[in-house]
Write a structure and sequence with these properties.
Blueprint (H helix, E strand, L loop, with lengths): L1 E3 L8 H13 L2 E5 L4 H17 L4 E7 L4 H13 L4 E10 L1 H6 L7 E3 L4 E4 L10 H26 L3 H7 L4 E3 L1 H7 L4 E2 L9
Parallel strand pairs: 1-2, 2-3, 3-4, 4-5, 4-6, 5-8
Antiparallel strand pairs: 6-7
Helix pairs in contact: 2-3, 5-6
Amino acid sequence: MVYTNESDERIDDGTARAIDERLFKTRTVIITGGINDKLAHRIVSQLIILSDESDEPIDLFISSPGGHVESGDMVHDVIKFIRAPVRTIGSGWVASAGTLIFVGADIQNRFCLPNTRFLLHQPSGGINGSAADIEIQAGQLTKMRERFEILFANATGQTAEKIREDTKRDFWLDTRQAIDYGLLGSVIQSVDQLPS
């Protein structure tokens, strides 16, 4: 099913319903745009339903600048939770929380199209309020960063220390760099290159 965070820009309901039904039959989910709680709810619902229907692979296409971390966490964790294997397929750009979702799949199930770029970086957030609240928020950002370092270390085979060093600033990777880093399994140019 096609889900974006811009639901008001969807095509008319009849056409959208026909597209959604066709994508459901082909076990395909498409994520575009920013990741937020509403989008995560829709994606997770679809993944659970598709997994309940069959243990056949689900293809999850991602082109996203990222967004809300906990929404990305929700999708990442459900990819690992359900029985059906999820194949993540990057296209365009896979950044921030989008990359978090992308690595929810096992390495052999992480694919991308040739012109995809990837972005890893530290979590960030607007901090404001009283001095006590700022201290709490800063502590939470530190915990989130440390969790990311471990999560991406486990997903890539890099050390948590290397992830920390590389993500001090925006860390962009092209497809070759993403493969070498352990983020990406393989680049594909055609649906025929996906395992049967």
